[in-house]
Amino acid sequence: MTKTPKKKAHTPGEIAEFHAYCWSYYGGKNALYPESLPKLTNKELNEGIQEALKLSIVQGELDSVSREIVRDLLLLSRGVKKVEHEKLIERERAKQHKPMSSLSRSELRKLHRFALGLSS
Asked: Which one-letter DSSP state was computed for residue 80?
């Protein structure tokens, strides 16, 4: 059986370059599509990129599809209901949540105590 190779983490330089690429489309006064994300801030864009990286949605090349996924994450965070890559985003977000059946007894006890207000 062959092992799946580990995914390469993006370097800070690659992420900065990707940020500039996304900004050229959606941010600032010279953006190609500023109407897609009105009043986009660098902070908001950083948060969208970090979420996409955390969810492992953008892997390999940081390309136009990656840019569109970041755009869609930002639109969803702004309350837009329907976006192009919605199903992919929902699937990846669901993977991040641990099902109750996979919790250990200790974790279940802690969760139960928290729900009863017995611990913080």
From this structure: -
